[in-house]
Design brief:
It is a single chain. The chain has about 70 residues and is mostly helical. The chain has one domain. Helices cover about 60% and strands about 0% of the residues. The protein contains 2 helices and no strands. Helix 1 runs antiparallel to helix 2. The longest helix is centred in the first third of the chain and has 24 residues. The protein is elongated and about 40 Å long.
Amino acid sequence: MKCDLKGYEVELQLLYRHFESSLHLFRHQSALKPSSDLSLAKDLGDFALFLAHITPFYPEKIVNFP
């Protein structure tokens, strides 16, 4: 993705929407029962790490990512 910024914009948007959905799901599951699914937490952490590495290359596409 870092080598072909324009070529991966659509995939990045899909991944970011998937991250937001996973985060939303994680928050709701955590509110219902504190011992939420660990695999969801790991996936969410993997997404966050990936997006953290990609955000500097797509600052206008991932504006709301901290």
